[in-house]
Amino acid sequence: MIMWEFTSGIIPFNNEAYDLQLSLNIYKGKRPEIIKDTSQCYVNLMKSCWNINPSKRPIALDIKNIIKKFSSDTFLGSGKVLEFFFKFRIMFESVSKSK
């Protein structure tokens, strides 16, 4: 959901009550609508993080490596998307250094 918030600039499901019903719906697979023009590589990573089966979600190190690769690839094009990837990269690098 954090990745979606980066692309939208708003909190997921901000027009709904944050209650048990929303929690159950998310548990059953409800996800916010993908923001138009979001880079496909970003969408793929975001969806993998949303996998209903937690064991199939990428671990933090995998996410870091994927984002590092994305941020160094030139095919991304959009400055906005690159900005998000650089924020993630900086966040993961600071976490890695603190260990």
Q: What's the arrangement of secondary structure elements?
A:
Blueprint: H1 2-8, H2 20-27, H3 40-49, H4 60-72, H5 79-98
Overview features:
single chain; protein kinase activity; 5 helices; globular; 99 residues; 18215_t:CDS:1; mainly alpha
Number of helical runs?
5
How many individual β-strands? Answer: 0
Number of domain units: 1
Mean pLDDT: 82
Largest sheet: none
Radius of gyration: 14 Å
Give the termini separation: 25 Å
Helix content: 55-70%
Describe the global form.
globular
- Strand/helix succession: HHHHH
Structural class: mainly alpha
Identify low-pLDDT runs. Answer: none
Content of β-strand: under 5%
Describe the structure.
The model has no long low-confidence stretch (mean pLDDT 82). This protein has 99 residues and is mainly α. The protein contains 5 helices and no strands. It has helices at residues 2-8, 20-27, 40-49, 60-72, 79-98. The protein has one domain.
Short description:
The chain is mainly α.
